[in-house]
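Hey,
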Amino acid sequence: MATANAMYGRLSHFYARLFDGLASLVLANGQRELVEAFAASVLRSGPVEHDLAQRDETASARCTAWLADHNKRVLLAPAGVGTIDQALMAVLQGKHQSLRLLGLFRKVLIVDEVHACDAYMQGVLEHLLRAHASAGGSAILLSATLPERMKRALLAAFAEGCRQQPPTLPADMAYPLITSWNADRAQHVETYRVGTRADVSRTVKIRYVADLDEVVAGIRRALDGGRCVCWVRNTIADAMTAYALFAHELDAERLMLFHARFTLRDRLDMEARILDHFGAHSTSAQRRGRLVIATQVAEQSLDADWDWMISDLAPIDRLIQRAGRLQRHRRDALGNRLANPADPDGREQPCLWVLGPAWTDAPRATWFKDACPKSSKVYRHHGQLWLTARFIKEGQLHMPADARRLIEGVFTEDVDLPAGLQPVANHVIGEESSEASHAYRNAIKLDVGYVWRGEQWWSDAQTPTRLGEASASVVLCRWDGERLLPWATHAQPRHAWAYSTVRVPERLIAEVVPPSDPQRLRAWEEAKLTLPDQGKWSVLLPLEKTGRDWIGVAMGRASSGELVSRQWVYDARFGLFPLPLRVNERG
């Protein structure tokens, strides 16, 4: 959603040039009403619509209230920006699916960061490309780290939608590369090598580290030297642990924690704070001696850069994305932005540290899991992590010259793995095949049409656009005497509840323990009715001030299915975390 919101702002300035006359531009995501630029673009129907002066008014972004009324029909607008989920639901077995598909009819579908799709999402995207191509649409797929096998599958799906045999991709290892295919020349695929801007062509040193203490000592030296630092961790729990390592020695102004378990309001505030201190126009005074502990939320979307970076070991495409936040903008030795972008960067050569298991040529099956137990659940294919670590041992990345070699060297289908990691890889391949089968089962079947075959067609709230661990929308509120108030404040109650929402895995929070006091129980039930979904698909978690903490009680779902009660604390600086985890903060 953050990427979609940012792209909406950029498109709103020039999209009208693509159309003859006025055209609507919509933002399609679950929290679009909270984007003030979008809210200001909605033109309410009524007599004012026929005002000649208004028709002559030029606006950078406008849409009708009817189009903006519901996610199901925003795709009918001539132009729009949204999350990939809004488009994927056009081919999933859900209510009003056909209205979404109609909205995409004969449009140009642009999908960014397409490499980030897992096996299930890729399967659904292939169905979408088939349907879109069969209706005469066009598609542009964008990625900086797309493996060749994924490109073949997506191109084959689009060609099948055009009722053509899948074309053969030419062997072209150039990077960056544009690959173009047209149904009028079905067996001809054109490739174009794209010139690289000088300011993005560079060599990044990489240092592989297996000792956590060495990383902590390196961060301290960098901060003492006046540099700003970002440490990207693979899980929220690891990020909080890293934060605790520095909380006693850095004040709150110099230390930031950034992950996905903040309420929407606090996350937007944190994004703004990071852009202020580390964005394109940040100064040396704003950057000096500051540390950000982040998760994958810092990989994309944010146009921020740091002088020095550490990353937990992750697949090579993720590391390339993270390295893109290392000295992203050219600055002088103090960290001030250079007026002339052609001038060389005044800082020392960029170096990305990567923290992972001790290197071995013959890893055991538990090589990664033993050293990084939490990360092992995020990145399942430990063979790809070992291949990534082997490339990192080379000590540097030449970008973009090395990009294709690195990506194909990790993600190609016939790569040789050490014997100890092969069983793990085989298990992951089996899981991905199962996920692809789920995608086929859940998607509409264009060849048979709308024929009842016993499937369950779900509402939007239940239609899975992606698999993975089940999560819940947890809406935080706070007790004010016997009243319940949204955690975030806003003039409009609906927005206040939306800004108070955070996504949490159901194994952590699935239900809330209702208040035992009858008066509070009634207040809690009445508050649920004021939520946008009236509490049907969300969990309303009341927090009460205890000392300096806001604490609530919720029940998570164990692997056995049993509900387990746990206390939770929310803090705008740390996010939502379970007790007894504590952060001993300086001051």
